[in-house]
Amino acid sequence: MEKGLLEKTGKALEEWVGIVKEQNFEKHGQIIKFLKEEHGFTHGFANFVAHKARESDAASFDADDLVTSQYSKGKEHLKPIYEKILGIVKDFGSDVEIAPKKSSVSLRRKRQFALIQPSTKTRIDLGLKLNDAVLTNRLENSGPFGSMCTNRVQLTELSQVDDELIGWLKTAYEQAG
């Protein structure tokens, strides 16, 4: 993205970040509007520069710190569920990419197949991207994940990471290849 930004605008990312910071914008949307209207940016490049200027993208944070932060403030007891899911998924293949963000961890192959999010102090929401999955009392519609995932499983205890759940994860992984 940085190389494309330089090619399209003639300025490096650091230069654009400096320009944006001189404006003292408070909101992400203000930066995007400024870059699009004043400098002819596409939305993608404007969003990229806005995130970098505000240091709000996942790449601006250490991955371990992001996960530690997710499982703090009363959510520490949920971390073993996260770790068990990660351990299982890593065994699916060497092509699994684990991408922590501020509030969740995305699991990808060629595309995202799952999302692990400690949504409350008592629950992890596991989002899955499944083709034509049959809903059950556990496997729900995507809920708060919207189009990022097709389904969601709510997890409150380690024992819920069982063969049924592993099967759904494995299917999502295979469909993402």
Characterize the structure shown.
- Strand 1 and strand 2 form a beta hairpin.
- Strands 1-2-3-4-6-5 form a 6-stranded antiparallel sheet.
- It starts with a helix and ends with a helix.
- The chain has 2 domains: 2-60, no CATH class; 63-175.
- The longest helix has 13 residues, at 163-175.
- The protein contains 7 helices and 6 strands.
- The chain is of the alpha+beta class and 177 residues long.
Summarize the structure.
With 177 residues, this protein is of the alpha+beta class. The chain has 7 helices and 6 strands; from the N terminus they run ααααααββββββα.
Give the uncertain stretches in residue-range form.
none
Q: Specify the biggest β-sheet.
A: 6 strands, antiparallel
Q: How would you state the average pLDDT, rounded?
A: 92
* Series of secondary-structure elements, N-terminal to C-terminal: HHHHHHEEEEEEH
Q: Structural class, judged by helices and strands? A: alpha+beta
Radius of gyration: 19 Å
Number of domains: 2
β-strand amount: 15-25%
Quickly count the helices: 7
What is the strand arrangement across the widest sheet? 1-2-3-4-6-5
Overall spatial form: elongated
Instruction: Tell me the helix content.
Output: 40-55%
- How many strand elements? 6
Give the N-to-C terminal Cα separation: 24 Å
